[in-house]
Structure formats: structure tokens, C-alpha cells
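Q&A log
Question type: sequence-to-structure
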Amino acid sequence: MYPETEFGTLNDHVEYEAMLQCLANGWLDASMLHWCQMYLYTLQNQDTRDIQVAFFNAQKITGEECNKNFASVKEHLVQVYKLHHNKKYFIAPFFHSMHWVLFIISPMEHKCWILDSVSVRGEKNKTDYPLSKAIEASFGGAFTWNMIKCKQQDGSWECGYLVIRNMFEFVISLQFSFPNKIWNDTTNVTPEEIGKLIENIMTRFFISVFDDNMRAIKLSLES
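Response status: OK
Response body:
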């Protein structure tokens, strides 16, 4: 998923608090979104279709990292691209100013699509996101930027859930017809939609985690 470091393959974990916050319609932290990225990466590796998606690590490209460690963000973008240079789209959940946004990046086409759940009332463009500067600096020049008409949030906490929802929709189905088929709905997400998403995501989470643990226990008993 990512290049190996001098310490070997990257391992990650989800904080208990992050899981509880997700179940309680709370604020989602980077570990929960990163788990969703890893889950989707594993899921698509089992798909027989021509998968065109790779992922940038949400924890390495935050707004704070872009402002304080710009060279490190560029290095991550370039190294992941080199590892998956045959992929057309790169997914990048981006956290900045207490808000989650989703970037869909095509380095080979120099195009980027941004899904921001406050973009309508905020009238945003690429200059509102420090990651946009890192993307252009990493991949050699100006990009075409597209603000997607996507679901909007009515409160202050729904952004992380919408980023997860949009990631799942893109990886599972939309990537195969994108950008001809694209989001086009700026209505506010409802509590019922958030609840359905949480049920879906947490069901996948528990099945994944406990299935892996049960397999490990079985192997331990058999050895």
C-alpha cells in the first residue's frame, strides 16, 4: 500500500476512542479513516476488475504537515506514486482546520477533484487547501481543479463520515465510470444516512478485526 521504510512494513492501529466516537456519531480521527483506506485497499486486491485506485496516507498529508513539513509531504506523495505508477487515481483524505475533505488525484492527467461537505456555503477553491500546493509541486506543474457537487453537512462533525462514504462509493463502483459518472447532489446529509453508514462501516470493521483474530488463535492452537 505504501513504500517500506527503514523500519520495515508499516503497521497501524485504531484507537478505542476512535471506534467509540464513530459508534456515537462523534468526531472521526485519522486512525479510523486510515483503517477505511487499508480496508478498501485489501478489498480491491480481491477484485477481478481492472482496479485504478491507490491511496495516500491521510496521517502524512494533513494541513499541519503541509505547513510545517512540506518536503515530507512531497516525499510521501512522490514515493507512493512511484510504487503505484500504473494506477490512474489516488485517494487522499485531507484534514485541515478541523475539517475532513476528500481529494481524488490523477497525476498522469494533472487533474484533481475535491469533495468538500462545506464547499457550497464556503465557496471554496484549491487555494483553501495547503495540499493542493504540495500536489502541484510533487507532480510537476499546474493541475486542473474541480470542486465536486457532493453531499453537504448541516453540523460541525459530519465531514469525516462523508469522506468515508465518498471513498467507499468511489472505490467500489464510481472509479470504473469516473469522471463521466460523478457526484451531483448538494443536499444536506441526514442523520438516517449517517446511521446507515456507521452500521455498514462498523460491521465491516468488526468482521475484519475479529476474523483476523480468530484465524490467529486457530493457527496458534494448531502449531
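Response note: The domain at 16-222 is CATH 3.40.395.10 (Adenoviral Proteinase; Chain).
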